[in-house]
Amino acid sequence: MEILGIDIGFGFTKASSGEQNLVFKSVLGEPIDIQFREDMLTVETAGEEHLQIEVDGKSYFVGELAERQSNVRFFTLDQDQFIGKFAKVLALTAAARMVKGFVPINLVTGLPIGSYRKHKDDLAKLLVGEHKVVLINADGQRDEKSISINKVRVIPQPFGSLFNLMLNDLGEMGDKRLVRDKIGLIDVGFRTSDYTISDKMRYSERGSRTTDSGIARAFNVIATKLRESSGVNIELYRLYEAIDEGSIKIRGKVYDLKTLTEQVFGQLATTVANEVDRLWVDDWDIDAMVITGGGGAVLAKHLQPLLNGEVMALDLKADMRMYNVNGYRKFGQHLWARGSAPSSPAE
Ligand SMILES: Nc1ncnc2c1ncn2[C@@H]1O[C@H](COP(=O)(O)OP(=O)(O)OP(=O)(O)O)[C@@H](O)[C@H]1O
Ligand SMILES: [Mg+2]
């Protein structure tokens, strides 16, 4: 039995098995026949792998491959559509890449707080069972796999980060402080910001909410400005690298993004800090706050000074996009590999 964590985010799908990690953009595309597949020079193109899968008789390009090669691309920021049309293909792509066929999988995954109740049973039902898929490699070779998902546990997304901090790789309790204390979690993702409180490991409904203050909001402002100045409509998921580098080249012209990015990230951080203040107004006894999610990493420098209270230090070297999924996997380890189940916030 293999224990997997899969975090199907609006921006990125993340997976972890302990030994292996995988991250790709949550973009699907229609496959096209690529007639010239050789790399023109043997230069390492890190992380750009050929992800192509057949699920339920339909073939998809997935992640960066879809972004670069597909004429028709699918990407959504709508929760119902995401669960209905994307979640299964993205999760099975991750699972198929991570495990050998026929090895039963126990899976921990998550949902934003705001759609947890509505979708948790649907999501589990979608994923559990035997799935016949075909992975297709860059040479067009087909690798048929039977993905057998034995158990699925769905938890509210930010709890992944809490488990990641609390449990060691074997799923054993490491940091006891997090179990005893009242912790506020701020998970800034691509589309959503998720807030939740763990009070001595109990989930607080009052202190939990999902809002639309994800990084996409800042990206939208930048995309709009770029459309005004360049006339090109840039899909949001094509902006990560440019914003990270501080400039973008569109039809030969370079546009500086540094000043604008600082400004919109500053505004977004203010919005997030205000949401925290309002949501946790009665929870002035929070011991520490945790900023997490890939968006949390890029906003932290703006956000940290605006939060009223102790903020736990971030691991600056870690890829914060992986925080929830690493916690999912450790929680799975705790549930299924140690024999004894802890009290879970998801029950
Ligand atoms: N190495 C990186 N590559 C790309 N984006 C990164 C990286 N590091 C941080 N980011 C930021 O992470 C954000 C995505 O974070 P994350 O993967 O946590 O979102 P998500 O879980 O897909 O979204 P949601 O929680 O809304 O469903 C991006 O918008 C980007 O700003
Ligand atoms: Mg997320």
Layout of SSEs?
Blueprint: E1 2-8, E2 12-16, E3 21-25, E4 28-29, E5 52-55, E6 58-62, H1 64-69, E7 73-74, H2 79-98, E8 105-111, H3 113-127, E9 129-136, E10 142-156, H4 158-166, H5 177-180, E11 182-188, E12 193-199, E13 202-211, H6 215-230, H7 240-245, E14 247-250, E15 253-256, H8 258-279, E16 288-292, H9 294-303, H10 323-336
Parallel strand pairs: 1-8, 8-10, 11-16
Antiparallel strand pairs: 1-2, 2-3, 4-6, 4-7, 5-6, 5-9, 9-10, 11-12, 12-13, 14-15
Helix pairs in contact: 2-3, 4-10, 6-8, 8-9
The protein binds adenosine-5'-triphosphate and magnesium ion.
Walk me through what this model shows:
The chain has 347 residues and is α+β, with helices and mostly antiparallel strands. The chain has 2 domains: 2-156, ATPase, nucleotide binding domain (Nucleotidyltransferase, domain 5, 2-Layer Sandwich), CATH 3.30.420; 158-321, ATPase, nucleotide binding domain (Nucleotidyltransferase, domain 5). The protein is built from 10 helices and 16 strands. The protein has helices spanning 64-69, 79-98, 113-127, 158-166, 177-180, 215-230, 240-245, 258-279, 294-303, 323-336, and strands at 2-8, 12-16, 21-25, 28-29, 52-55, 58-62, 73-74, 105-111, 129-136, 142-156, 182-188, 193-199, 202-211, 247-250, 253-256, 288-292. The strands form 3 sheets. It has a 10-stranded mixed β-sheet with strand order 3-2-1-8-10-9-5-6-4-7, sandwiched between helices. It has a 4-stranded mixed β-sheet with strand order 13-12-11-16, sandwiched between helices. Strand 1 (2-8) and strand 2 (12-16) form a beta hairpin. Helix 2 crosses helix 3 (113-127), helix 4 packs across helix 10 (323-336) and helix 6 (215-230) packs antiparallel against helix 8 (258-279). The protein is globular, with a radius of gyration of 20 Å. The model has no long low-confidence stretch (mean pLDDT 91). The structure holds adenosine-5'-triphosphate and magnesium ion. Adenosine-5'-triphosphate is lined by residues 9-12, 189-192, 214-215, 240, 293-295, 297-298, 319, 321.
